[in-house]
Amino acid sequence: MVMKISVKTLDNKAAGDVTVKDDVFGIEPRGDIMARVVNWQLAKRRAGTHRVKIRSEIARTGAKMGRQKGSGRARHGAASSNIFRGGGVSHGPVVRDHGFSLQKKVRQLGLKSALSTKARDGKLIILDKLASDGKTATLKATLAKCGIENALIIGGAEIDAMFSRAASNIPLLDVLPQQGINVYDILRRDTLVLTKDSVAHLEERLS
Question: How far is CA 135 from CA 132, 161, 168, in A?
Fold first, then answer.
């Protein structure tokens, strides 16, 4: 099945309609799947560079700390032991990759759910194209006419350089090419703005 969504220009004028597929923009959203995809995305972003020094990496004396007998204390032989201040750390964090695998079907279902959530809530805007004179003030005023403030804007395969430059100084506004669309960025912004080219790309990618 298909559904129709109105298309606007950046000047908030009607530019016809676009027909989108229900199996991409009209499914019943799965909150649990979107949560899994977001966790997967954020785990991949973690640097994993935190680490501590273990006993073999501590530069401390290995001389016997006391005489063998008569003190009534343990027969310690190295100050690098983890039980002493300044010694190595036992079972501490090491450099590692926090990422994990997630099936392609789950990732696709998460993206469809995020798109369908915006469409269902009336938070999906489709523009015919993205263009700007490169001035932030002008673009901000233009977007305000369309009710676009806290938004993720998805362009075509390449973003117009002047539009990207003007948008980069506007808070709460993210601009990505069509291949960069993802569940986390969709959900963290109030409104999702797609161009007609990106709609066609998403339908081809997810159908």
Answer: 7, 12, 10
Please give the pLDDT value at position 1. Answer: 61
Buried b (16+ CB within 10 A) or exposed e, 61-99: eeeebeeeeeeeeeeeebebbeeeeebbeeeeeeeeeee
Contact 50, 138 (CB under 8 A): no
Give the residues of the chain that fall short of pLDDT 70.
Answer: 1-2
Instruction: Walk me through the domains of the chain, giving residue ranges and CATH numbers.
Output: 2-46+100-206 (3.40.1370.10), 52-92 (no CATH)
Calpha distance 125→130 (Å, rounded): 13
User: In whole angstroms, what is the distance from residue 113 CA to residue 129 CA?
Assistant: 24
